[in-house]
Amino acid sequence: MSDTDRSLEDAVLELLDRRAPGASVCPSDVARAVHRSDDDGWRELMEPVRRAAARLAARGQVEITQRGTPVDPARARGPIRIRRPSR
Fold this sequence. Notes:
Blueprint: H1 3-17, E1 24-25, H2 27-35, H3 46-58, E2 63-66, E3 69-70, E4 81-83
Antiparallel strand pairs: 1-4, 2-3, 2-4
C-alpha cells in the first residue's frame, strides 16, 4: 500500500472521529484534507479516496452510503458518503 493510500485511509478515520456519531464525510473532504493545497489537485484523489473507503469498508471500519443507505462499494455509482458502521 502506498503512502498516499495510507494517508487517505487515515484521513477518512480522522475526519469521522471529529464528527458526531452517525455523521458522514464526503470523499471530497478527505481528498482536500490530504491534498492540503489551495489548487484543485485534490480532484485527482477522488477515485483513490473511493478505493480507500472500500478497503476500510471491507475491514468493517466504515460503510459507504448513497442517500443514507449502505451500498456495496463495488456497485456504487455517483455520489457517496462515508460513515462509521451503524450497529
